Amino acid sequence: MDEQQVERLVKEHGLEAEAARSYLSAADEYNAEEERILGGVFGQVSGPVVELGAGRGEFTRELLDNYLKPGQRLYAVERLDTAAAKLRESITDERLEVINSDSVRLPLPDGAAGLVVSRAALHDFVSDDGDVAAALRDCVRVLAPDGVFLVYDKVSDGFADVERESAEGRMERMNVELAALEGRKCWGLHRSGDYRALLEDLGLGEIMLTLLDTPDFPA
User: Which residues contact 27 (CB under 8 A, 6 or more apart)?
Assistant: First the structure.
């Protein structure tokens, strides 16, 4: 734990030093477990990787730096033109190809990917009809027969009322309401069972579920 991080949380968020240290300690444990799990998944994959919703490239960089093997291809999919262009400019790794597209029609051949990964993106998925399964069917098409579809996201398991009990829950509810104001639907927070049902609807088998206890930011 870095004491400078503690000082920043105290200064910028008004936390007590002990609360800041407790949060950062829990975050360190969470990150270590995340790395262990992801390392195990990526260690079994040799083919190209497709990242959905690359955004500003935080996870893209993490994939390239920590998980992809030398020569292993990464297709970073980003639907927003500006974000995709910035991603191309900011990361100059020969393993990376940025694809400016949504997930509905991926410009990749059948069975092209050893792994498709969505990290912290589905809960923010916004569409006109809210049909997440329809938006992901083409991602299954590009998976190799022995490929892995990895969904890594926030869930509301463990909360009786996630909006009342969690700052994250209240924030995600705001995203749902903002989408509704535009006449659109945001998938929002769900329980792990809903993700399992989604993957089953996509025709995926041998579904494995691991829950990590994410530290909630101190109120």
Answer: 215
Entry pTM? 0.86
Residue with tokens 């291809």: 73
| Neighbour-count burial of 157, counting CB atoms closer than 10 A to its CB (0-12 exposed, 13-18 middle, 19+ buried) | middle
* List of domains in the chain: 1-43 (no CATH), 47-201 (3.40.50.150)
> What is the Cα–Cα distance from 145 to 193, expressed in whole angstroms?
24
End-to-end CA, the chain = 20
| Average pLDDT per block of 10 residues along the chain, 219 residues long | 82 87 89 92 93 94 95 95 96 96 93 94 85 92 95 84 78 86 87 92 91 79
